[in-house]
Structure formats: C-alpha cells, structure tokens
Amino acid sequence: MEIKNLLKDQVAVVTGGTRGIGLSIVRKFLEQGAKVVLFGSRPESADKAVSTLLSENPQYIVSGMAPKLDDFASVDAAFKEIHDQYGKIDILVNNAGISAREPIDEYSEENFDKIMNLNVKAVFDCTKAVAPYMKEQGNGCIINTSSMVSIYGQASGCGYPASKFAVNGLTKSLAQELGKYGIRVNAVAPGVTRTDMVAALPEDMLARVSAGIPFGRVGEPDEVANVFLFLASSLASYVTGAIVSVDGASKA
Ligand code: NAD
Fold this sequence. Notes:
The structure is a single chain. Strand 1 (11-15), helix 1 (20-31) and strand 2 form a beta-alpha-beta unit. By secondary structure, the chain is an alpha/beta fold. The protein has helices at residues 20-31, 43-56, 72-86, 109-137, 149-152, 159-178, 196-199, 203-211, 221-232, and strands at residues 11-15, 35-39, 62-65, 91-94, 140-145, 183-190, 243-246. The two termini are 33 Å apart. The structure holds nicotinamide-adenine-dinucleotide (NAD).
C-alpha cells in the first residue's frame, strides 16, 4: 500500500536520530515530506547520518545538530536556531536513550545518573524548549520513546525501566497540560528491536527473548517507526496521552 505526503512540509526534530529506531523514524518522516533536524550525540555522527540520507535522496531536507541534551541552555539554543530557520516546529520525537543491565549491588551512582539524565531529563529539556513555539502555533506533536519495560519492569538493571516509567509519567502529564494548546503528547513502547542496543546482548539471551515472543522474532526498527509516523500524522488527531506498545505481544 502506498502512503504519500502524510507529513508534507511539517518540521520535525528527532533526538537520537543517527541510527537504530531514530534513524528509521527520520527516514519515514522524510519519505512522507517532512523537513527533519536530527540530533546525535556528536556532530560527526549527526553529519554521517545526514550524508547517508542525502545519498539515498538528494531532495530530502535534513540537517544534523548535537546539542547536549541534559543541558537546557544547549537544547534551548538549538531549538531557537531551528525555529529561526523554519519559522515553526511541528513535531518533536524524544528518542535518544541508553540502557544498562547491572544488578543493584553493582549499579554505580554515576551510571544511574547517566541513564536518568539522557532518558528522562533530556525529554524534559527538549519538551520545555519546544513547548513555547508549539503553544504559540496552537498545534504540535510530541512523541517519546518509552519501552515495554515501562510496563513490565526488568529483572536486572533497574535504572532503565525506572527511566521509562518516568517517560510515561511525563507523557501522560504533559498530554493533560498541553492539550488545551492543541499539542498532542504520546509515547511508543517498543519491545526488543533489532538495533545496536540489542546487538550488545549475548546470542543466547537474544534466542531466549525471541522464544518468548509469539512471532518468534524481535521487532525491526521500521516496524516501530511506522507507529511514530501514524502518531505524528493527522490520522492520530484524537490520540494523546497514549503509550502505544509495539512489542509483538512480548511477555516480561
Ligand atoms: P541505539 O543505541 O541504536 O541509538 C541510540 C540513539 O541515541 C543514537 O542516535 C545515539 O546518538 C543517541 N544517543 C545515545 N547517547 C546519547 C547522548 N549522550 N546524547 C545524545 N544522544 C545520544 O538505540 P535504539 O535501540 O535505536 O534506541 C532508541 C530508543 O528506543 C531509546 O530511547 C531506547 O531506550 C528505546 N528502546 C529500544 C529498544 C530496543 O530493543 N532497541 C526497546 C525499547 C526501547
């Protein structure tokens, strides 16, 4: 089925857009006519992703930036630059995230802070920076990347599920706070998805995980990105405050 121009001329910012789920989201948005600014952790990785996308289609309007996501001043300056360039920001995808699986007795404070700073505070920072523009426009769409562990928890590495529970809390609360300005706020909760994050898992663990999924396989980044596309589009005009699972009915 061919779908065309679902996001024609929409301006979108995607954090963690250099690879994995984020890169798939950026590609889908560009294919559907959006202008995209992707954020990476370093200018070089952002530039590399932009070059890859432009080599696929030189007509794409895509650029890269690398603000420090847990530093509000850095994020605020980036959003101001984007708004100055395009005159609006329609869509924000808060996708950048890291995980860790250490048991509690081996979990350093430093690693706990690192997870919270990227997975939670960066979502707060980016949303705080974009909200004034979306309020002024009278519309906007924010989509956060949560995880199935925000529903089930996980047996080791408590910081990661804790951070994603917090993402769900931000999503549901901000949907209520910002709805009166025409801003929708949703989250997607992927199950195990084939990206670098999952490539780091031992083979036997991946086999065990796949065996516990009714389809017998993990998800592909494109299958997750399709749901972001739906939520970003006007097809989801009455969807807000939702945490949408894309996990093939995985069990904890
Ligand atoms: P990935 O490791 O392939 O990509 C992570 C992205 O985050 C990259 O673009 C990277 O540049 C960015 N990033 C990492 N550290 C950063 C930092 N300090 N500052 C700025 N950006 C940084 O991961 P992925 O699997 O594509 O994960 C994307 C999102 O999906 C994350 O929020 C993750 O928690 C979530 N998620 C992934 C899975 C999975 O199985 N892959 C499952 C559920 C949820």
